[in-house]
Structure to design on (442 residues):
């Protein structure tokens, strides 16, 4: 890992000297060893503070939105999984490809103080879906391990599921971290910041409010969620938000064909498209049935 | 304010029907003028297109005390704006899946395609839906607890 960090620093310095980029979005050492913090490097001397180790789990692509207002190109370090979020932002015109230089950095699975990150157990692989240059290495991402939680939920009765979600969602403190970290949540004016919406930022005042925030957010990111797992990672209450997102993805794949958000910035998300032959919503509520009345 | 004792009264659901201006709303009119009845529990809200209905509208309706919400639009292919109801179809299918996943009775929500010429379908649909909701009983899961009787 150390050799990779050195190569990254060298590459950054070279690109800086060549005048290719004038700032660098990467990580620096945080308070503890296990929390490398996202940082913007604005001078060549600062590059020596750059770190890249197995604690760089965050996705830097969303920070690029702010960088678009500035002059010149920004260099960003992206791991293979981060490039999905990047493409998603690109397809929503939140960032300008011309103003970004992507340095693809290899990943062997990221950790926090408790071990391998949960999101790394469902890694999408070693491929970069966007890059200008890739740092070569023999690191390889961890093999996927199915969580099994989805099946458990699918087997429950409606009452059990309701109780499960009640228990989980009522833990929410409405810190909005899940929204703030999400690469699909890049709206300039979020509905949860709009007082008139009635679901603005506040801790729930009644039971329904807890559900509402999560239903709406999962719905807003449906078709755009890359299943990056960042929301579940940052939730201070350990709410398994990935279960909601994966359910949406699973249903869309089943009905409208497999689609991976962020894989290709040109592709259209299932909810912005339709086919005349789409399955009907049946009165019997069986999938694909035809209305009975 | 006097608090009514509802315990031994028959359950009268509150049903909200979002009806597209170009078809189902006219269908309701036709049902009226051809004197076929639909339950008084059904309250209609006219929308310019079924696609205008934001999933939040349905959730909000449940929160404010609706026991069932039905969305009625033009048959696929007949949308006044050409394609609106195709989006509705995808969107609502997904919303219903989500509600189901959260353990909320899926029968409380429905989408039906009712044209302006289908007055009879309008009344049978509303009757059937109201019956379903009556059997399900009051919506307790999604209601704002502060509004509970
Ligand atoms: S997994 Fe979570 S953070 Fe990642 S795109 Fe989906 S909703 Fe956003
Ligand atoms: S929650 Fe919805 S409105 Fe808010 S940022 Fe995410 S997608 Fe946009
Ligand atoms: S991060 Fe967790 S606690 Fe915070 S708003 Fe999201 S779900 Fe709620």
């Amino acid at each position: 890992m150390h050799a990779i960090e050195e190569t990254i620093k060298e590459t950054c310095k070279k690109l800086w000297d060549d005048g290719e980029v004038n700032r660098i979005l990467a990580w620096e050492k945080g308070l503890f060893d296990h929390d490398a913090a996202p940082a913007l490097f604005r001078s060549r001397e600062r590059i020596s503070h750059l770190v890249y180790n197995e604690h760089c789990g965050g996705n830097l692509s969303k920070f690029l939105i702010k960088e678009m207002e500035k002059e010149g190109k920004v260099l960003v370090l992206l791991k293979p999984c981060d490039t999905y979020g990047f493409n998603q932002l690109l397809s929503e015109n939140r960032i300008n490809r011309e103003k970004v230089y992507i340095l693809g950095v290899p990943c062997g699975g990221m950790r926090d103080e408790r071990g391998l990150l949960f999101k790394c157990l469902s890694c999408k692989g070693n491929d970069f879906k966007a890059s200008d240059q890739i740092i070569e290495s023999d690191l390889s991402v961890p093999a996927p391990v199915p969580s099994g939680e989805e099946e458990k939920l699918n087997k429950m009765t409606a009452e059990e599921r309701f109780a499960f979600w009640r228990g989980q969602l009522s833990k929410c403190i409405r810190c909005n971290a899940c929204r703030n970290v999400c690469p699909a949540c890049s709206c300039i004016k979020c509905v949860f910041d709009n007082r008139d919406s009635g679901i603005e930022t506040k801790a729930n005042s009644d039971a329904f409010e807890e559900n509402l925030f999560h239903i709406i957010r999962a719905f807003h990111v449906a078709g755009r969620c890359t299943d990056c797992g960042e929301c579940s990672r940052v939730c201070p209450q350990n709410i398994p938000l990935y279960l909601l997102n994966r359910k949406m993805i699973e249903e869309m794949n089943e009905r409208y064909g497999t689609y991976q958000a962020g894989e290709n910035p040109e592709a259209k998300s299932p909810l912005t498209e339709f086919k005349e032959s789409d399955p009907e919503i049946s009165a019997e509520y069986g999938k694909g049935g035809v209305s009975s009345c | 304010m006097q608090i009514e004792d509802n315990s031994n009264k028959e359950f009268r659901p509150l049903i909200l029907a979002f009806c597209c201006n170009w078809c189902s709303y006219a269908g309701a009119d036709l049902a009226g003028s051809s004197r076929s009845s639909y339950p008084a529990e059904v309250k209609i809200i006219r929308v310019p297109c079924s696609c205008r209905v934001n999933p939040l509208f349905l959730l909000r309706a449940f929160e404010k005390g609706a026991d069932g919400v039905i969305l009625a639009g033009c048959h696929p292919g007949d949308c006044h704006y050409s394609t609106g109801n195709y989006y509705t179809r995808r969107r609502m299918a997904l919303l219903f899946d989500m509600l189901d996943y959260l353990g909320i009775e899926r029968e409380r929500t429905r989408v039906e395609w009712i044209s302006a010429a289908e007055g009879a379908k309008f009344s049978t649909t509303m009757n059937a839906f109201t019956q379903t909701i009556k059997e399900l009983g009051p919506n307790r899961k999604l209601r704002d607890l502060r509004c509970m009787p």
Q: What stands out?
A: Chain B has a mean pLDDT of 88. Residues A 181-184, 221, 225-231, 245 surround iron/sulfur cluster (ligand 1) (CB under 6 Å). The first helix of chain B runs from residue 24 to 33.
